[in-house]
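Input chain follows. Return structure tokens only.
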Amino acid sequence: MQKLLLITDTPNNNPLVTAFQKTLTPQTQVQVVTPTTSVNPDAVYSPLTFNLPHITPLFMACRNVESLRDWVQTHLNYNTGKGQYWLPMVLTAKGPLYGEVIQQTGDTYQQPFHLPDQQRQPLYHLGYELLNHLNASPAVYSLQFNLAGDEIIFDRVFPFPHPSSIASLGIQSPDLLTCHWLCLTQQPILDLIINPHS
């Protein structure tokens, strides 16, 4: 049985951690550790925090929100600001797949939030360019953004599943937590499908 180590600042009562544990069992053993715990080299590990003792260039670039916003404005001509929507980007070894947008309403997240094509295409373009710029490796990424009419407003990128990813459980197949595991273990994902009742 393979083991997934989730690295988080909040190991207790963390809804994302609980969802990982429920979703991936019994296909893999999920263990939760804090950033200061020594990592088992035989396990697959996934940080769910930027608070790491040894931060990679990818995590550093995503953590530096203002610098990444400046790059997006300068090189891609998107405005920036706070966002309440997330585009799930599932980066497989063969390229990115884009999930349906997730919306925050109050304290809850909902998927799908349908976008018209005139918003969807610029959003996918933004995601694609960001993944290339970040030299991203296979994983699930969460692009946070906002909308101003038809305009996409860039906020930030999480190089791991944002808590909003929980909204995909029972809605998208495979759900975003399973997708993250499949990406980390170099397993193929052919498509992302929203269940018919959604």
